[in-house]
Amino acid sequence: MLRKVTIFLLFILVSGMVFSNYLGAEAAGIKGGKLTLILTTAPQTFNWFNAGIGDSSIIGHLLGRGGRLAEYNEIEKKYYPGIAESWKGPRVTKDGGMEIIFYLRKGVRWSDGKPFTADDVVFTFNNVILNPKFPNRIQDQLKTSKGLLPEVKKIDDYAVRIFYKEVYRPAFDAVARVYILPKHIWEPQMKTKKISEIWDISAISKGELVGLGPFIPVEYVPEQYIRLMRNPYYWKVDKNGVQLPYLDEIVYKIVPNYEAGKLIFLTGGADVFAPRAGDIVAIKEKEDFVVFRQGPTQSIQYLAFNFNVKDLVKRGWFRNIHFRKAIAYTINKQAIINVVYQGFGVEQNSVVAFMSPFFNENVVEKYNYSIDRAKSELKLGGFRFGKDGILYDSKGNKVEFTLITDSSDTFREQV
Solute-binding protein family domain spans which residues (predicted)? Predict the structure, then answer.
């Protein structure tokens, strides 16, 4: 099988009635095959409420991604219908509230063959996400500025109404991206387990993992691999009427670290690998791999000062805005991109990634590399350089502190 290298570099308001194709409807591929990938850490859970980010969430994503009400195309910056074939809203109601009505696809089945209906959507929101006994990050995303949560009600078996008592602009984005859960699997387990305990690692051997996504985890050998098989009831088909996904299975080999994963790929043990930027040229020289450059991601490398450090002297430095600005001016971002990342990177001057729809160039203050500007900021902050060339604060304390980073990440160490 052809091996590939993938390169990762470091309010949306939808209104009206929407009818459109889904993502993947225009695909045309060949059915069958197996894909072998790399995981650098073993999954700790299949419950995406607990998974956070990282390798546990990767598996949960494959299990649940086909179960979103709407799907967002990152390239086109627009939503396509998901398990909701259409929707009305968001629209303001006469009482000053806001509603979205989702019309669900008929004939969709869970991976165990059970029918998907509005009951699953209402259960996911009201019994799990909006459950007051189960605080979770999605619940926080659904809250308005006044702390109000939506009301989710079933209109009929294939229609659901989301209602807010006040206008909440991010509502569609937050609601549409939720992975819908199978009520027939989760409801019985909630009688004996906490929500956070459902779909733990043991769920795979018990056959409890049921989803609307393209692949279902079926086998897990700790510290070795996890195998996923295509969902026989996946609801998407391509333009020729062929059921998706094309692949029969995906196998994730579990490795202890990045270097182990790279070795497995280079020796033919994996089909796809996401190299660090500094490795791209060297890997390309070993063999004529197919390389896909996906462009910048929203991952940002940054330096953060501890505002609550126990040392009160250091705390004063770190909370001094002129001190922090001075440090910003001493960071040569372009040199880091050129030397550490071999040119595969972009300057980032905001906590909001520049490719985000929320990024506004006009409100970003840039700190281009400048030692002179750094010295000016230090002076404004009450700092001075002694005859020995060492920096002192206004009380005569020598300025020195420790930078801490992940020792297993050679690129951060180089930075």
Answer: 78-413
